[in-house]
Amino acid sequence: MSTATVQGADTADDDGASPAMHERVLKAVGIAIASGALPPGSRLTLEGIQAEYGISRTVARDTMKVLESMNLVYSRRRVGIVVQERGLWNVFDPKLVRWRLASDRREIQYSSLTELRIAVEPIAAAGAARRASAAERARLVELAAELRRLGEAGDLKAFLAVDIEFHRLLLQSCGNEMFSALEGMVAEVLTSRTQQGLMPFKPRNEALQAHEDVAAAVARGDAVMAETAVHHILNEVRTAMGLR
């Protein structure tokens, strides 16, 4: 099955070897796998990838290496390149999260990611209240105030950047390196929600207040309140997106 169509004009001058072209092909094949257009067991060849996208063998090989590192495909002698079963995918890889959110299965991915955030972020906030540095506590308060300003102004692009920084800092300052490793994934879901028009023009006051409550609780070292306030943020997300 065809994975995507990429304009040949992109490769006219560079034989398909530019970083931009590599990313386009990687994204196209990745989304095809994530969406099920290329289901588990599908076989690919370097020659087929070359022909479909008009790229060099080197770029085709590099693309497959990235997909193999994510456990989306595996290669075997005399068999070729085969799409892996879903249970073997590296579902925490931010690129895969991005591709799944760009596919027609995005609702399932939003639901699972929101449930993961509900399980992790409140505990991370409690950890930040106990372990964050003075500078991190002060920065969270600054970011919450900036979210209020940008949210009320309806500046969603700037709001997204600050929201990502807020949640990244919360995870980074909690003192748990496994939670911190999820920051890229959280950034992807926040970005996707905005880019796909799933954010209201102006964020709800309840959400803005909850971010301020989290920051204030972390700043004063109130782990219980920090955990509760993050639950409020994520419950609002779940309700707003109609997730079960």
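^ that was protein a. below is b, sequence first then the tokens
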Amino acid sequence: MNQPQLQTGPTLGDQHEMSFIDHLEALRWHIIRAAIAVVVFTLAAFFAKDFLFHDLILGPSRPDFWTYRMFCKFGAWVGAPDLCIDKIGFVIQNREMSGQLTMHISTSFIVGLVLGFPYLFWEVWRFIKPGLYPHERNNSQGAVFFVSVLFMLGLLFGYYIAAPLSINFLAGYVVDPTIENQIDMQSYISTLTTMSMSCAFVFELPMIVFFLAKAGMITPEIMRVYRKHAIVVILVIAAIITPPDVSAQIIVTIPILLLYELSINIARMVRRNDTARLNAQLAENKGVA
């Protein structure tokens, strides 16, 4: 009578379980390294309190801010002195006992996330990349660089253009001259960070279109057909990002429209490259046959 053979090696199910555990272990270390980077940048921002708040955060609240000075120069150049912003009509106040300490910690954390974003995305990309096919990895080279550059460009645009225009409009809007604008510190920083971060993520549109085009979910023809609808959506986004000021909405809308047109060209380039790759594979298969 034959005795059943004992299995000394791992079964197929055990191999899958070990592979899944190794996968989670790799993800855990990616998260830990990204968290360490964010903590390091957060601590650096926390100890650079004077620069962080006086120069960076509170910069748009003073009339000597770079954007306001540029508007004054541009207004003088085109003969439109009304464009010059030489006065900010509000005072920032703190109304809570622990408000400044809490704001110092939370703002440092936000700055840490912003500065650590390129490394954070790089860690995410390192986790995703092994699961891609070779041609997908080749086509996605430079993704971390372009995502980081677009994020920083959008952040700078929000900080130097969208946020100052919004702050100046909201600070100068009065329903009665007897009412003084005394803005809470939390409200001011929330407006500044919302404007800056919104623009940072909106500027990722070309990369989003690139990945959607690679997945076959979007084509340049679709983007051209729905261009008018996209313009309406962009105007809505600009209205959400900026206050109800027509000039500010136009200034924010223009770069987003340019990014949309750039995205159409990116989708066209992706399809052209994919078509060339498929034709090369077909020619190779015919040659082998």
